[in-house]
Amino acid sequence: MFNKRTRIKELLGSEPKGQEVTVMGWVRTFRNNQFIALNDGSTNNNLQVVVALGKFDDDQLKRITTSSSLKITGNLVASLGKGQKMDLNATSIEILGDCDAEKYPLQPKKHSLEFLREIAHLRFRTNTFGSVFRIRHALAFAVHKFYNDKGFIYMHTPIVTGSDAEGAGEMFRVTTLPFDEGKNKTPRNEDGSINFKEDFFGRATNLTVSGQLEGELAATAFGEIYTFGPTFRAENSNTPRHLAEFWMIEPEMAFYDLEDNMNLAEEFIKYIIKHVIENNKEDLEFLAQRLAEEEKQLPQDKRSEMGLIEKLEFILNNNFERITYTEAIDILRESSYNKKKKFQFPITGWGMDLQSEHERYLVEKHFKKPVILSNYPKEIKAFYMRQNDDGKTVAAMDILAPGIGEIVGGSQREERQDKLEQRMKEMHIPIEEMWWYLDTRRYGTVPHAGFGLGFERMVQFVTGMSNIRDVIAFPRTPGNAEF
Ligand code: 4AD
Ligand code: MG
After folding, report:
1. Smaller CB count within 10 Å for the chain: N or C?
2. What is the CA radius of gyration of the chain?
3. Quick check: CB of 211 below 6 Å from ligand 1?
4. Is the pLDDT score of 3 beyond 80?
């Protein structure tokens, strides 16, 4: 058996009493031919390995370079030096993989996040990305724990679909049809349009933008379900908050109205934040420190009022502000920002779609806490949202988070078949193709609601990373699908 190792995180939490242990990991630094800082990814803290002078061949010591991989056995003893509690006195060192120090792109010094994106295949080996991805894991685990403990069923909804759940047309086509004009021509109908009957699935298909519609089918049998999977949007948004491939958690609940939906979303967000505060203290402290340093570069008025951990604790201890879209428009219209024409998009009045600058004004300047906005004009929301009695608004809700903007989008669903079909007609949603969706309204329809939490935006919020490309391992954005 090869892998009989102890993780460094575990060792650093134990008492050094001379016990023999084996560790495996990558060299961060090798000082004075004597001190190896070894990292194995379980924590940002390195284990100091002491290489006694004269004990090992010079040829072997030369091969101990930054990021070479080692298997080391030794005795764990209390450290004589300052800065660490324990040392591993090496008795055997096996070099598992050499690393040419001249060529290795990740030198042991500070690199910009932009540069690290270009070497995303190696950036996990930095402290920042170590912390971010351990927290990402913890958040994902907490998502499953939260819903499992509440009795929700985890549904795996399809990635290839024929429908556009959001009706926004931002889909990536999935096809095996040829698209050259030569011998191997794209099959076409008489009117010149592409003949998708010849395609792999015998119809046009795309990557899913949301698992919601299938989630609704399951919720109207199991009661409460959630999805957690990748979703795809071909929107050409080059911003620090948009990805073409992102992960979304979408709970869908029968017998829930809009208020039940908001309560669940707020409880859920607080739960997963609490899980990270309780389980990832060390990584959070590291990221809090990193963020504080980063913010020192910013002008005073651009800095956050709270540190990262303080901000997360504030979220746990305060209720989210709940206001309607109509109230939000009034606040924005009357704001000094609007009057002084500080918005790029001025507040034109009721009915306008809110831009992220407006959302951020509400959470960061006005309320200084997360805000749940509800009851939006039906014209700016999806076809499936429940129509309110006023004839103008739908039972939608978005949650806006400080520094992020929209983190959750959801609604109560239109469960009344006639109203739903009428809205689909108005919005040119293909009713015949969606026969299966409408069947839930035909056969034992129930009031139900759900929402989608953008997982990467949540990871951004918890880690304080300002660019969404730095919280997903291999970001897909317009013009970029490297790795
Ligand atoms: O508001 P959206 O589009 O809502 C839906 O997809 C619904 N079907 C959800 C539901 O009710 N089940 O997206 C939900 C969330 C947004 O609030 C945002 O956090 C995230 O998904 N999101 C993105 N995250 C990263 N990159 C993008 N391009 C995103 N688009 C949406
Ligand atoms: Mg939305």
Report:
1. N
2. 27
3. no
4. yes
The fold adopted by the segment(s) 127-171+209-470 is BirA Bifunctional Protein; domain 2 (3.30.930)
Q: pLDDT digits over 245-298, tens only?
A: 999 999 999 999 999 999 999 999 999 999 999 999 999 999 999 999 999 999
Q: What is the mean pLDDT of the segment spanning 225-249?
A: 96
Q: Which 3 state secondary structure label does DSSP give 19?
A: coil
Contact 254, 415 (CB under 8 A): no
Determine the pLDDT at residue 146: 99
Tell the residue nearest (CA) to atom 20 of ligand 1.
454
- pLDDT tens across 412-468, in order? 999 999 999 999 999 999 999 999 999 999 999 999 999 999 999 999 999 999 999
> Any idea which residue has 């006023």 for tokens?
390
At 290-332, the pLDDT tens digits run 999 999 999 988 888 899 999 999 999 999 999 999 999 999 9
Which residue ranges make up each domain of the chain? 8-97, 127-171+209-470, 172-208
| Helix, strand, coil share (%) of the chain residues, nearest 5 | 35, 25, 40
Among 239, 353, 406, 437, the mutation site with the greatest number of ligand 1 atoms within 8 A of its Cβ is 406
d(Cα 288, Cα 456) in Å, to the nearest integer?
18
**Ligand 1: centre distance to CA 316 (Å):** 23
- 362-373 residue pLDDT tens: 999 999 999 999
Cβ(210) – ligand 1 distance below 6 Å: yes
- Ligand 1, from 208, 248, 268: best to mutate by most atoms within 8 Å of Cβ? 248
CATH code given to domain 8-97: 2.40.50.140
Looking from the CA of residue 168, the nearest atom of ligand 1 is 3
List b or e across 389-414, with b for residues whose CB sees 16 or more CB atoms inside 10 angstroms.
eeeebbbbbbbbbbebbbbbbbbbbb
Nearest CA to ligand 1 atom 26: 242
60, two tokens = 């072997």
